[in-house]
Amino acid sequence: MSAHELRVEGLSVRYGHASALSNVSVTARGGAITAIVGPNGAGKSSLLLATYGSVPATGKVYLDGEDISRLRPGDRARAGIAIVPQGRQLFPHLDVEDNLRVMAELLRLPNSAVDEAIDRFPILRTRLKSLVGVLSGGEQQMLVVSRALMGSPKVLLLDEMVTGLAPLIVRELAQTIAALAREGVAVLLAEPALGILRRVVDRGYVLIRGEVVTEVDGGGAALDEAYSAALGVERPKEIGIAR
């Protein structure tokens, strides 16, 4: 599989009078996991949501060199961008299988795509007819990741994928996204702190108060060091909307 590329240029997001992002440019390429780290309210979720097209933004979004800035979220999904949003956004009163069928219909995929998604994490097959609302946090996150991967995306956006999960689940999810990156998927994840994920992160950006203050290509540990240094220089203030 050829490596894909996501490129965001000059992205800015405002909510009323509050600026969430200001002229942010980032690149994520297949073969590497790119991380966005920053404190709560830094604009990490706004960056991913704007890239997916869920919130209004100015700037450009390119997928494999093609400008997709004018596409709606559903069209961006069909073009190859998938997102695992903060808060998961599952349907708690539907079972596991039906949650996956909803995504299959959105992406216009055959029924076989649901079976393939279930098999990505074997525990999901044992929960197939369970209502999503009764699943553990780890099981729900596995379902969300499986759902995002149903269309064989070129780009995977992960918003605080591992927050609050047990280390064993975090390692399994980390192995999954590392394998995807090796296959050529451009993985862009946003976290307030890397933790265990630093082992699989290859490069990334430090986001403070809606602006990129540092770009690092030296791996997860180097990104953590740059993040600590940035916080030591400037204690960030909340921007008014923590997303």
Question: What's the gyration radius in Å?
Answer: 17 Å
Overall shape: globular
Looking at how many chains there are and whether they match, the oligomeric state comes to: single chain
The share of residues in extended strands comes to: 25-35%
Q: Extract low-pLDDT stretches.
A: 233-243
- Arithmetic mean of pLDDT: 90
State the order of secondary-structure elements, H for helix, E for strand.
Answer: EEEHEEHEHHHHEHEEEH
Report strand order across the widest sheet: 6-7-8-3-9-10
Based on secondary structure, the structural category is alpha/beta
Distance between the termini: 34 Å
Helix content: 25-40%
Would you report the number of β strands? 10
Instruction: Specify the number of helices.
Output: 8
Tell me about the biggest sheet?
A: 6 strands, mixed
Description:
With 243 residues, the protein is α/β, with parallel strands linked by helices. Helix content is 34%, strand content 26%. The chain is built from eight helices and ten strands. The strands form two sheets. It has a six-stranded mixed beta sheet with strand order 6-7-8-3-9-10, with helices on both faces. The chain has a four-stranded antiparallel beta sheet with strand order 2-1-4-5. The model is unreliable at 233-243 (pLDDT under 50).
What key phrases describe this protein's structure?
single chain; 243 residues; alpha/beta; six-stranded mixed beta sheet; four-stranded antiparallel beta sheet; 8 helices; 34% helix; 26% strand; globular; disordered C terminus
